[in-house]
Amino acid sequence: MASRQTALKISHNGEVHRVRVDLNAFALGDLEQLFASTFHLTPGSFVIQYQDSEGDCLNVTSEAEYAEACRVFLSADDEVKSLKFFAVARTQAAFQENVAEPIVSAIENLIVSLNSAMEKVKQEEWAMRAQSGVERTGDALNQAARDARDSLEAARQSIQEIPFEQFVRETTDGLKTAAEGISSFAHGVVGKFETMIPNDTKEMIPEESEKKDEEPCVEESDKKEAVESENQVETALPVLTPAPVVVETAPPAPVVVAPPAPVLSESEMRWADQLALIRDFLPDVDVQRAVEALDQANGNVEVVLNSLIG
């Protein structure tokens, strides 16, 4: 069988040596003897280890482990194939197995627990901020509802404070004053039309008739001219007759009386502001259903609107 020379690196306390060996004839005992002679170590006082592709440090204490280590190195993707072993004191190896590895494992578990706790704290913090934002929004909506309710109540009281008889009397007096003003204006217009009629129109027609009586012997041509001139005068000056002015009196406007306020139950009085705000968004909302939802949500309008809309 042809010999197969393979590069071998051995190290101890930072000191590294490189040799070439024939793996067909080089066994674990030869490797231990090479470490002892190279680094002046006492046989049995050290442990041979190697690092696999996953980064773990593994002990080589049997031929099977040595063969597996050679297989791992030779099957690697490195262009230059070589074996890499290092020696550590047996006490150091025992410390790593019994103390260091449990500590590292405990630290890793602690880091995982801390990360989980931090995520939980962040989630709780965001939840608290979201709840605080919802409460602030609910308070602002409740305040707006109270302000709108107060404004409507003040307007309703100002309307109810005016006596009904006074309102009717003032409306009737205003209509009478308007009718008298229209009548006076109509009489003034009629008087202006009468003064515009000329007096000469009334006097011209009798003068023409007198001329006919005084001159009976006028020739036929003069009579025709007189008749034509008389017709022209009558056509040119018509008598103006003023058109009658009709004065219409507007009927009194109907008086709208605000209906009495409905009687509210105890629950509706408790959530009056919230119900007013809900009616602004949902005019046809069922009052009983809205009151039950407000009782369950402790007056949170945003939650009630979401439940009613959903």
Largest beta sheet: strand ordering: 2-1-5-3-4
Task: Tell me the CATH topology of one domain.
Answer: Ubiquitin-like (UB roll)
* CATH first level of one domain: Alpha Beta
If classified by CATH, what would the architecture of one domain be?
Answer: Roll
User: CATH homologous superfamily name of one domain?
Assistant: Phosphatidylinositol 3-kinase Catalytic Subunit, Chain A, domain 1
Integer-rounded radius of gyration: 60 Å
| Low-pLDDT stretches | 233-238
> Treating each run of at least 4 consecutive H or I residues as one helix, how many helices?
10
- Secondary structure: helix percent: 55-70%
Distance between the termini: 84 Å
Give me the secondary-structure category: alpha+beta
Instruction: Tell me about the largest β-sheet.
Output: 5 strands, mixed
SSE run: EEHEEHEHHHHHHHH
Q: Could you say which overall geometry the principal axes of the C-alpha atoms support?
A: rod-shaped
Amount of beta strand: 5-15%
- The overall strand count is 5
Mean pLDDT: 74
Keywords: Coiled coil
Protein name: PB1 domain-containing protein
Pfam families: PB1
InterPro entries: PB1-like, PB1_dom
